[in-house]
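User: Before I run my own analysis I want an independent prediction to cross-check against. Here's the chain; please return only the structure tokens and, at the end, one sentence I can use as a sanity check.
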Amino acid sequence: MHLYLHVPFCARRCSYCDFAIAVRRSTPSAAYVDAILKEWVQWQEHSAWATSPTLETIYFGGGTPSRLDPAAIDRLVNQLAADRSVEPDVEITLEANPEDVTPERAAAWRTGGVTRVSLGAQSFDPHVLRWMHRSHSADQIPRAVEAVRSAGIPELSLDLIFGLPAALERSWEADVEQALALQPEHLSLYGLTIEPHTVLERWTRRGELTPVDEERYAREFLSADARLTDAGFEHYEVSNAGREGRRARHNSAYWRRAPYIGLGPSAHSGFDNERQWNLREWTSYERAVGEGASSVGGREHLTPEQVRLENLYLGLRTRDGVVATMVSPAVRQTWIVEGWARAACDRLVLTPEGWLRLDALVALASG
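Assistant: Structure tokens:
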């Protein structure tokens, strides 16, 4: 079993963000823990535990989990481990913003069981960080990395965003080099998307922002792939690269369609063909669990065809690919000739050029 805890609290909303967050000056850590543990009690009788009784990964995502009081994280991890068996080498990831990471907090996270920090750097360019409405400065990133290292947390991942508007004159290559200089075990590279109801969407609608063109987007993605491969990283999923043996185990569980439970507002859970998701807003979620009611906002059951399509899409996202017979011989041959895929024994694996066309290729294969 894999467990995700959504921590919605943020100091401010970034210009590109459409996540379920709650902007707060101070973080209600105690109230959050109380709500999560009330929902956790409701999960104890779920039938999925019969086949997946042990927690393999725990992931604190957000929002900004690093804004929680470290004692809250410790309390949660202890209670989870008291109620369910936990793998001896459990991966416990905490997403963190650089400005929250101090030597004292990092040491407390390590004492509380955190084995991996995912640091939201996004860029090392001060102008870009201001444009993104990020709450940290560029010089806080290396200080945060040093604090994580000094605390003895064994795994560090850095997040970067590419595909920014050309008008920003951001050097993507320089950002990649600065990230590599910090010697992380893992990098996550996300292409900027302009989502509805975001600051970026308003800027675009008013003509104040011209999104990046496809050529520049592709060039940045492919240049990062080449540079990371040269540096000894395995680009093992569209948006993720790690040193040997350092794949993100929690995220990899999603791509394998392993069973997972999501706790907290807007968190999703999935078991085979069953999906459910929680109420989106923190206030609604807290009220529901406080009253002993269900926090579920919706459910669905996937049809066999939807399961097949999900397996195809998730498998093609990864370097492991899919069983070749999931794609017709004619389509496979076209992809290989075009340089979008390669055959690997009995599997079909997309190349980085293929990943740039992932949605279109999946639509073609399933049509």
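Sanity check: The domain at 2-255 is CATH 3.20.20.70 (TIM Barrel).
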